[in-house]
Amino acid sequence: MQIAENEKLVIIGLNKAGQKFRPSDWAERLCGGLCTFRNRRMYYSPLLRPAVIDGIKCVVVDSALADKHSEMYQYVLGFVEENTLKTEIQSK
What we know:
The chain is an alpha+beta fold. It has a single domain, classed as Uncharacterised protein PF12112 family, DUF3579 (Alpha-Beta Plaits, 2-Layer Sandwich). Helices cover 25% and strands 38% of the residues. The chain contains three helices and six strands. The protein has helices at 26-31, 65-68, 70-82, and strands spanning 7-15, 36-38, 41-43, 48-53, 56-62, 85-91. The strands form two sheets. A four-stranded antiparallel sheet has the order 4-5-1-6. A two-stranded antiparallel sheet has the order 2-3. A hairpin with a 2-residue loop joins strand 2 and strand 3 (41-43). The protein is globular and about 40 Å long.
């Protein structure tokens, strides 16, 4: 799956059967690989960040992640495929 330059991938915390994905902190764990810490606070990267959309935990993947952190991008896509999570492409 390739994201165009002006798009972002939204990974929705539901599997293909429509069931909520567990554990409940999956989005934060997935995004933790690119976060930084300052003053004892966690800051998520704008390339890979957790979000809540319509009450469902999601992860927003910027198209630049594929260029800047290709291994992380491949890991995220593998995670989506392995766990059969729903995705959608949105314009920036």
